[in-house]
Structure formats: C-alpha cells, structure tokens
Amino acid sequence: MNSKNELIEERLPKHLAIIMDGNGRWAKEKGKLRVFGHEHGVKTVRLITEKCAEIGIKYLTLYAFSTENWKRPKIEVETLMRLLVSSLKRELPLLHKNDIKLNAIGNIESLPARALKELNEVIAKTAENKTMTLTLALSYGAREEIKNAVQCISAKVKNNIISLESIDETIINNHLYTRNLPDVDLLIRTSGEHRISNFLLWQIAYAELYFIDVFWPDFSEQHLLEAIKNYQHRERRFGKTSEQLN
Ligand code: IPE
Ligand code: IPE
Ligand code: MG
After folding, report:
1. Is 69 known to be catalytic?
2. Phi, psi values for residue 198, rounded to 5°
3. Ligand with an atom nearest the CA of residue 80
4. Catalytic entry in 2, 5, 23, 69
5. What is the DSSP letter of 182?
6. Is the dihedral of CA 90, 81, 223, 36 positive or negative?
7. Which of 10, 26, 61, 227 could form a disulfide with 17 if both were Cys (CB 3.0 to 4.6 A apart)?
8. Rounded distance, CA 100 to CA 129, Å?
9. Closest CA relative to residue 105, chosen from 70, 143, 62
C-alpha cells in the first residue's frame, strides 16, 4: 500500500487538476440512477480535497461542470446544481479546519442564483485561508475562457490601453480565469477516458497527464498517492534534453 510518507516532498505537484469523470457509469453499474453517482462523487470530492491539503498540495483544481454539461437532461443539471448548493453549505467547516481557500473559475454568472450566492459566500468566508487553494471549475470551458481573453485584450488594444506589440504570454495569462493560479503540473482524469474535454487548454501546456481506469466515486486516497508517486518519477524536460537538466 502507498503511504503519504513515500512521497518526495520537494517533488510534489504545486498545482494538481482533476477531471472527475465516471459518476454516471458508476451508478449505472449498480443499477442506480445517475444522480446516485453524483451524490457519491461529492463524497470523493471531500475525501480527496482533505487528502491533498494534508499531503501539501498548494493548488487543487476540480472540473465539476463544463459549459457543455448544460446540454444534459434538465433533471440532471438541476440535481448537480442542488448538490453544489448543499455541499457548499455543508463543507465550510471542512474548508476552515484544513485552512483551504475556495475559488471558482468559469462563467459562474450563469449558475442559478442560489448556487452563485452560496458560492460567493463561501469564497468570501475562506478568503484568508492559506494552506491550499481549492478551485472549482463550474460552467467552465477553456475555449470560452480563451475567447473572453481575446475579446478583452482586443478591446484594450482598440482603446489604446495596451499596444499590439506588448501582447505576450503574461498578458494572455492575466486575462484568463486562472490568472492567480500557477500552471498545472499534474492532470488526472478518472473513468478511463483519454481526453481533455475542454479543460484548461492553455494551462496544461506542460502538465503531466495521468489517466486512471476507475470511476470518480471509487477514486481513493491510494489512487491519489499512486498518481502523485508516478508523477514524481517522471522527468519534466520542458523542451530541453535530459543532459541539460542534470
Ligand atoms: C462526471 O461524471 C461528473 C460531471 C461531468 C458533472 P459523469 O456524469 O460525466 O459520468 P459518466 O462519464 O457519464 O459516467
Ligand atoms: C468532463 O466530463 C467534465 C467534467 C468532469 C465536469 P464529461 O463527462 O462531460 O466529458 P465527455 O463528454 O465525456 O468528454
Ligand atoms: Mg463523463
């Protein structure tokens, strides 16, 4: 069994992002409705969030609802929004206990009023927490994020606030939802699907990718430690040669 002590502290991913996938199939396998899977998925969110803070991850970003997920049946979307409200209400003590600051990325204005209110309240109440930043990607789509950034930068050029020549990667970064977050170091996707599904396209340019054939409700502390251990044994070259790194 893996244990926390087997991790190399200096090689922890600073920013871990997770595509939490497979709730529906997990429930179907058990002959239950998809909703049942989402309810269990919430438990995994709690467990993994707490473990990440314990391990020493500084930034954890969870893909909870994509811009494309609005196309799901109305009843499923409503359930997901209801679960969001109830878990935000319930998990405030857990966030405080672990000194976790909540953050959100995405078109959060498009969330139902109750969810948005709850979200903003928890964000405000945890704003001073320091140990870990938990970012929920809600109504998030990377293409929309990039489109918004392009529009905003273009407007600044048009109005002579910045020059065309001054546009660089830093300026683009500063116009993304993730402007306050470092690049992703490790991206995990559960459920056996090998795709990105419009998540953090800019920010994963040099992320290490890890796919695991386990549905999100079954993703455990052991799976998390295994993924991080695997990451710690990879050589991140960023375009250089192995020899240059050593
Ligand atoms: C992930 O599980 C949760 C959300 C996308 C909201 P899914 O609901 O996508 O479950 P599968 O992939 O259909 O099994
Ligand atoms: C990606 O999962 C979005 C989230 C995990 C929130 P999906 O289940 O929506 O992705 P696809 O449709 O299988 O690519
Ligand atoms: Mg899915």
Report:
1. yes
2. 65, 35
3. 1
4. 69
5. P
6. positive
7. 61
8. 5
9. 62
| 136 φ, ψ (degrees, to nearest 5) | -100, 125
- Summarize pLDDT for 15-57 with one digit per residue, the tens: 999 999 999 999 999 999 999 999 999 999 999 999 999 999 9
For residue 24, give the nearest of 39, 9, 10 by alpha carbon: 39
Q: What is the CATH number of the domain that holds 107?
A: 3.40.1180.10
Q: Look at the block and give the residue holding tokens 């078109």.
A: 107
Nearest atom in ligand 1 to the alpha carbon of residue 215 is 14
Question: Two tokens at 174?
Answer: 């500063």
Radius of gyration over alpha carbons of the chain, in Å? 19
Which tokens go with 56?
């020493």
Read off the amino acid at residue 54: E
The amino acid that residue 107 corresponds to is N
42 within a domain of the structure (yes/no): yes
Query: Under 8 Å CB-to-CB from 226, ≥6 apart: which residues?
Result: 2
Number of domains in the chain: 1
Query: Is 168 a domain residue?
Result: no
Amino acid (1-letter code) at residue 206: Y
Q: Dihedral of the CA atoms 28, 29, 35, 38 (nearest 10)?
A: -130
183 as an active site residue: the answer is no
pLDDT digits (tens, 9 = 90+) for 177-215: 999 999 999 999 999 999 999 999 999 999 999 999 999
> Are 216 and 23 a contacting pair, CB within 8 Å?
yes
Residue 85 in any domain: the answer is yes
Distance CA 199, CA 29 (A): 26
User: Which atom in ligand 1 lies closest to the alpha carbon of residue 64?
Assistant: 6
